[in-house]
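Lab notebook, bench 4. Still working through the backlog of constructs that have no structural model yet. Next entry is a single chain of 190 residues. Request: give me the structure tokens for it.
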Amino acid sequence: MDLQEVIGEAAKCRQCTLHAGRDVPVFSKGSVDAKLMVCGMCPGPEENKTGVPFVGRAGKLLDDILSDVYLTLDDVYITNIVKCFVKPGTPLREDWISPCLPYFINEISIVQPRVIITLGADASRALLNKPPDTPLFKMRNKIYHYTHSIDILSTYHPSYFIRNGGRKHIHYNRIIEDFNLALNIIRGGT
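Model written out:
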């Protein structure tokens, strides 16, 4: 199955209630040949209109983060676990995540990344199968082995920094460290 076939299947999906608010399924931007996959949790209003993840304010900051570690969209594959629009501030439910996981697993099979960076606690908990109350700080700074050839790293969601000063946030350097760790793994350093 190629990416267009997966997107076509998701466009017909009615396995959860989120399909009612979906304009188009939101899949990816970047390169399917990337060794670094960046994964958020769900699309917002701008993404629902375009079908492209991270095009709003968080996306602009993610672009800055990538630039700060000398990456472009040719170097990464950016996606979300949940493919349909979720109103901002709405707590995510397992019955929304579960139907989308097969699409995400297909993306992993197509891209074959070396490292997946999960943005925020929700995406991290979902991929790492952690309890719903697990805070990000307990998942960050660890390398998780998803398969024998794919590692997962958890880091902050760009929206966390937007709410607290953007690039000037006191902990902005931590997300840069996390991306650099991912690059080090890709280059064979860890």
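Notes after review: The beta strands are 29-30, 36-40, 76-80, 115-119, 144-147, 150-155. The chain has one domain: 3-186. Flag for follow-up if needed.
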